[in-house]
Amino acid sequence: MSDTELLSKSKQEPVRRVEVFTGTGRRRSWTGDQKAQIIAESCEGHETVSAVARRHGLTPQQLFSWRREARQQAKREVGENGAGFTPVIVEGSRPHPDALTAPAVLVGERMIEIVLGTATVRVPPGIDAVTLTTVLRAVRAAR
Predict the structure, then answer these.
(1) Contact between residue 52 and residue 38 where contact means Cβ atoms under 8 Å apart
(2) CA distance 123 to 94
(3) 90 C-beta neighbours (distance < 10 Å), count
């Protein structure tokens, strides 16, 4: 920088104040759990990604990068073992008006219920993946 650049343009006086920034400033580190929570919040759809980013003191670009990295990581994990997870919505049971009702399950037995349109598939603990896949494909084909 030349001497003339340090002079004020209006009065030709030397600059008397110089600011020196040291340290990391606003740089922060986020744990994996914190990132996952913020990413999930941004994917809920109630607010824009920019609004979620502002609330957490991020730039939208940083949050978009985190989301992209999470998608890529999920694709890698699915590619490695051939399995993946799907979000599940747990809500109170509301029978479909056209649905046929299967016999009640004994109290104390734990089951997973999968609702596909008007069909409900009750999955007992310990069922093998091949059988479950076959049943779900048959139910889907019957719709």
Answers:
(1) yes
(2) 18
(3) 4
Q: How far apart are CA 36 and CA 70, in angstroms?
A: 8
Q: How many CA atoms lie within 13 A of 53 on its CB side?
A: 13
Nearest to 15 by CA among 30, 1, 33: 1
Instruction: Convert the pLDDT of each residue in 71-86 to its tens digit.
Output: 888 887 766 666 666 6
Angle at 19 between CA 16 and CA 20, to 5 degrees: 135
From residue 79, alpha-carbon distances to 70, 82, 94, 132 in Å are: 14, 5, 36, 21
CA atoms within 13 A on the CB side of 65: 5
Least Cα distance to 111 among 99, 94, 126, 96 occurs for 126
114-130 per-position pLDDT tens digit: 888 788 888 888 888 88
| Whole-structure pTM value | 0.42
